[in-house]
Fold:
Amino acid sequence: MRNCGMSIWKWKMALVLPVCVVLASFAADLKSGAGIDRGAATCRIDYKIQPAVSLKALPFDLEDVRLLDGPFKKAMELDGEYLLQLEADRLLAGYRENAGLEPKGKKYGGWELQSIAGHSLGHYLTACALMYASTGDERFRERVVYIVKELDECQDERGYVAAIPEGKRIFAEVAAGNIRSAGFDLNGGWVPWYNLHKLLAGLLDAQRYGGEAKALNIAVKLGDWAIGVTSGLNEEQFQKMLACEHGGMNESLAELYARTGEEKYLVLSRRFHHKAMLDPLAEHQDCLPGRHANTQIPKIIGVALRHEYTGDERDKTIAEYFWDTVAHHHSYVIGGNSDHEHFGQPDKLSDRLSDDTAETCNTYNMLKLTRHLFGWSASAPYADYYERALYNHILASQNPDDGMMCYFIPLRAGGAKTYSTPFDSFWCCVGTGMENHAKYGDSIYFHGADGLYVNLFIPSILTWREMGMTVRQETRYPEEDAIRLSISCKQPVKTPIHIRHPRWAEAGMKILCNGSALAIDSQPGSYAAIDRTWKDGDRLEITIPMSLRLEAMPDNSKRAAIAYGPLVLAGDLGAITEKASDDGGDAAHVPVLLTEAAAPEQWMQSIPGSNLSFKTKGVGRPNDVELIPFYRMHHRRYAVYWDFYTEADWNKRQVEIQTEQKRLRELEARTVDVLRIGEMQPERDHNLQGEKTSAGELNGRKWRHAADGGWFSFEMKIKANAPQELACTYWGGDSGARRFDILVDGVKIAEQTLQNNQPGKFYDEIYALPLELVRGKEKITVRLQAHPRAMAGGLFGCRVLMNDE
Structure:
């Protein structure tokens, strides 16, 4: 039986054996997989299954990396303060209630009062364990130990442990093969498998990072319960169940297999293989457009982990193709992806800018996936993406005042960030946010048989135990271009140190070793390797010159972001109280840039006395604008993407903008209520119901329809006793058997046929609401009912408008 990673004997021998012998032994272990250290030193995990593939680079344990002062340490400290504000008993309330035990605290608000209740506890368990490993602060371990003890008691009472409302009924129906699954709903419950994955992941992390061995026992029993629930399902039933978002169940089950050696968990992991999504990816088919983004990414993380334990090449193909497709064809300049939680067409991002772009959960999961892929190849482009997303999305998603988190990162020009509240949000991105800021040390450094990789330039201290070596990284990067590495070691250590040469660093990089310049053989998007015998007191001084550049939309060369080194810059558009336009085209609030194709250094200048602040020079219309790093932009309206014009084109565009803005203002002034159809939360808010209905996306806009005589309905607010209209948005190119009735509170008010009504554009059909249908009411139920063998919709949106006539 071998310890995860190096055996204790090897760790001790590393202190006395010559370094070359230790390296040789470590390289042999790396090839076999035995050299992989997956368990924190707080609880060395005895893995029964060792990886089946050779990994080129391995992350260090979190307790081997300590952050020094800088923006990331500040973000971690804010997160820690928030974690300690939260009460474990309130997060556990639903678990105790479901187990028939008296809750010890009142449930929190927001999502914790809805049918996804309990998901936050799994994230919280992980976050506290990560924070303990990252800081050594015993207060976080105490939280982990207490929660695990409480969950153990709940599990003893009920046989399985969860806080899912109606979970017993839901899973009983599933076990019987009675499965109703689509999108976020499984047998009337909001993503129950997703919810359980968060708990499983939290338990596994409690063992790995929090040193709580008992957590594995609970996870094992939960895994056995999952086997029991699904054992009677045939493949068709299982795949039908997977149509509902199920998180990374395949990942946690694969990890459970590795820790226990029990094949049954690997078998179930393979059953949680969503063929409708994963099979096309294995054939290099981009099947992402229209799909809910974060439903997919955890599946790929599970596939990647399973490849490491089994060597399955098909799993590897899926993971690599998915990452490349998302990172290079579906991501914005900040490294995030999705609009209104969904993928669009590849390389079609210019018209997908809204207040609901770049869900933070997505980037949390993309970074987890990136760490796996980097380990396989030690390829710099993975580290380049990691840096981009970490600085410009994850760090940018935290409120620097109180540590609260963003669900979305708005990329619509004129947008502003919205943050969670401490006790009444508990969105999915609050859960992942708790974790994001607790683990900044996990990807700064990697190590392998060929040496040390310095991937991120974050002030920190690395203790490389195997080598008996400490590396201290001091820098104000990205506020300066200099990084200093200081080496401490009792005995000389011969090993290469690989310094990432960022893809954006086209001007090259300079490295001094003990004050002497080194000849560097590296290109942007690679590594500069310094291979020498390191002695105590050695130092490296790295300079990576930064410059301004544009990064254009893939489908619109005249719409681009402005970057400086690793940073995306955002323009300050004023206080949030100032109203900005809905489409980002209002010249009074969102300037455009008339640069005549000149390089940005010709029309931007640094603001004296203000670090990393810039201002455009005479090219902004109607005014110039100041820009700062996006991660520092908070509590203000901003722009990340800019429209570039010639003087002549701008004069024409001004007329179009003014006309459209007038129309939008008139529409908004008349609007009583609006439904963004096809989106999870707006549909829940409007009590969407239906049969034979599904949703998707076209040209960056969501739709919903009902097939084969089906229907869907939703509630809309109205003004009692006032003349009003219903405005339904359709795609003018829809045709075929699209015939349906529109009913209000059961009364038919119109019959609609879609047959190329206005080809090539979206348009609104206006239906009068009879006064007798609104008299004395505050809301109505609108129903689109398909004719027999026909379809209702697609509907792309709906508004109730005051009738001014």
